[in-house]
Write a structure and sequence with these properties.
The chain is α+β, with helices and mostly antiparallel strands. Helix content is 37%, strand content 33%. Strands 1-2-3-4-6-5 form a six-stranded mixed beta sheet. Helix 1 crosses helix 3 and helix 4 crosses helix 5. The structure holds coenzyme A. The site of coenzyme A (COA) has 22 residues, from strand 3, helix 4 and helix 5.
Length: 175
């Protein structure tokens, strides 16, 4: 997990506009190379301001760029953040990378940023993401019923969260 560099842009545009990936993302963002360059520059600015921490995910062995993960601060008083994650290369799904990346990010968010709770939203049809979030320790806290429309059908948006205490307890159990 590391901050993004402009040299990462070619790998990003190779995968980002893929509909197989975009169907799971709330902010459908079809982007050109120049727009992705601006987006990467923007990640530096948001990190400098303490608004959001966006990292690229890389496989150790080949230094292969496979996705992004971010934590966005939404409440500085209650210390709340929102997690977003996308492994953009489908050949890398279901290999445990998402769970590992989320655990790394949660550790950073709770231990270094001192966040208190972290939440997320996921479409009800995204079974893989739901299973991954549950494995990482998130629990369902509610639903926006039929709040998402796609391909002629309404779907629930599921809300999940995890607290710093819950994460610490899970970490103790795993060690
Ligand atoms: C969601 C995402 C981050 C998960 O990362 P990942 O590396 O694929 O997930 P993991 O391999 O760590 O865990 C996936 C789990 O889902 C399970 N799973 C996969 N498809 C499933 C299905 N249709 N129903 C139920 N469980 C399913 C897998 O078996 C695995 O659980 P297991 O390890 O207990 O067997 C990744 O798939 C991704 O980026 N997808 C596209 C974008 C996206 O959906 N982003 C999230 C938006 S909210």
């Amino acid at each position: 997990m590391r901050g993004l560099e402009l040299s990462d842009v070619d790998e990003l545009i190779k995968y980002w506009n893929n509909p197989e990936l975009q169907q799971f993302l709330s902010r459908t963002r079809i982007a050109s190379r120049d727009e992705e360059i601006d987006w990467i520059r923007n990640t530096w600015e948001r990190r400098r301001k303490g608004e959001a921490y966006i990292f690229g995910l890389f496989l150790h062995e080949q230094d292969q760029y496979i996705g992004n993960i971010e934590i966005r601060i939404i409440d500085n008083i209650a210390q709340r953040g929102v997690l977003g994650v996308a492994i953009f290369n489908p050949s890398c799904w279901n290999k445990g990378y998402g769970t590992e990346a989320i655990e790394l990010l949660l550790n950073f968010a709770f231990s270094s940023l001192n966040l208190h709770t972290i939440e997320l939203e996921v479409f009800s049809f995204n079974k893989r993401a739901l299973a991954c979030y549950r494995k990482a320790g998130f629990v369902e806290i509610g639903r926006k019923r039929e709040a998402y429309f796609k391909s002629g059908q309404y779907h629930d948006i599921i809300l999940m969260d995890i607290s710093a205490t819950e994460f610490a307890n899970l970490k103790n159990l795993r060690e």
